[in-house]
Write a structure and sequence with these properties.
Blueprint: H1 4-11, H2 15-22, H3 30-43, H4 48-55, E1 60-68, H5 74-89, E2 93-98, H6 104-114, E3 116-122, H7 128-136, E4 141-144, E5 153-156, H8 158-170, E6 176-182, H9 187-202, E7 208-214, H10 224-239, E8 244-247, H11 250-260, E9 268-273, H12 276-281, E10 285-287, H13 290-305, E11 315-318, E12 321-323
Parallel strand pairs: 1-2, 1-3, 3-4, 4-5, 5-11, 6-7, 6-8, 8-9, 9-10
Antiparallel strand pairs: 10-12
Length: 326
């Protein structure tokens, strides 16, 4: 059986460099990374920790891992509920990895140590090197709520969601619209706001448009930023003449709903997600099927578990829906 020393000797690198590749390839040149991977695959090398688990039959073969960026966000919880509904029926357990608690460089080696049956990656932009690492260890995985050309993915058409929000707000003859988002500038937020602005350009509409971004700390509960959204809405509506708001997500829009009650003039608000509280609050929003995405992700992952070889990549795009409420 090959050792890490054998891999390093044949690849002409240090043991430390091989170790970094096994942990995700941090600070390793692409050509060096590829050379080491080729040697590993040729020798059929497996890290000792995993080999020991296989010998002792300590594998968690009925456990599916879930990699999530922020477990405090209600939207992600809805996705997990969908995943759980499917996996519970098939008698699988869940193991949740919350990214804020582990650095990106350490998360994938930690996942591989658990020797899971499969992995669902929620809203995380996994790199090609990380995807290669997971495949090398024969761990089936699928990305939910992010679309990448080199991995299986299920996601929502966020640009269309932005267009639907623009269509609704611009039907009310508004004077000034604000796009309210996070300073993290995720791909989802970028696509939603691009869709909104593209609709305006495509229809040659003249409207004053501003963008404001709330500073978000992943270590704080997301509900903390509802208050900031409330204060921002008050200021923009009363001092800057904004009468239309498109919020990146419902949880920020809830702050806008609270502020609207204190504003004398009429303002229009659109959120994004359609979380359970949105119906009770009367929030007009863009519905994305979080629960359905979770169910589809779990169902397709189970199919991958029973495949002996990698099938054609799945790229399933779901359409959002405008939900109008008073």
């Amino acid at each position: 059986m090959s050792t890490i020393r054998d891999i390093a000797r044949e690849a002409g690198v240090s043991i430390a460099t091989v170790s970094r590749v096994l942990k995700g390839g941090t600070n390793v040149k692409p050509e060096t990374y590829q050379k080491i991977i080729e040697v590993i695959e040729k020798r059929g090398y497996r890290p000792n920790r995993i080999a020991q688990k296989l010998v002792k039959k300590q594998t968690t073969s009925r456990t599916i891992g879930i990699l999530i960026p922020d477990i405090t966000q209600t939207f992600f919880i809805e996705i997990i509920r969908g995943i759980y509904d499917v996996l519970r029926a098939e008698e699988y357990n869940l193991f949740v990895f919350n990214i804020p608690n582990l650095s990106q460089s350490s998360i994938f080696p930690h996942i591989l140590e658990e020797n899971l049956a499969g992995l669902l990656v929620i809203n995380f932009r996994i790199s090609r090197e990380e995807a290669h690492l997971l495949r090398h260890h024969h761990l089936p995985f699928l990305v939910v709520e992010n679309h990448l050309p080199y991995v299986h993915s299920i996601y929502v058409n966020n640009r269309k969601g932005g267009e639907l929000a623009a269509q609704y707000l611009l039907s009310h003859s508004l004077n000034k619209i604000a796009l309210i988002g996070e300073n993290r500038h995720t791909l989802q937020q970028q696509e939603r706001f691009e869709g909104f602005k593209n609709y305006i350009q495509k229809h040659h509409l003249s409207i004053s448009l501003i963008e404001e971004y709330i500073s978000v700390d992943s270590h704080l509960p997301y509900s903390h930023y509802t208050q900031e959204a409330y204060e921002l809405t008050l200021r923009l509506a009363t001092k800057e003449g904004v009468d239309g708001f498109f919020f990146y997500c419902d949880e920020l829009a809830y702050g806008g709903i609270s502020a609207r009650q204190e504003i004398e003039k009429k303002i229009f608000i659109v959120g994004y997600d359609d979380l359970p509280p949105s119906a009770y609050l009367g929030l007009t929003t863009i519905r994305q099927p979080a629960h359905e995405m979770g169910k589809l992700g779990a169902s397709h992952l189970l199919k991958l578990l029973h495949k002996k070889s990698e099938e054609d990549l799945l790229h399933l795009r779901l359409d959002p829906q405008l939900i109008i409420r008073n």
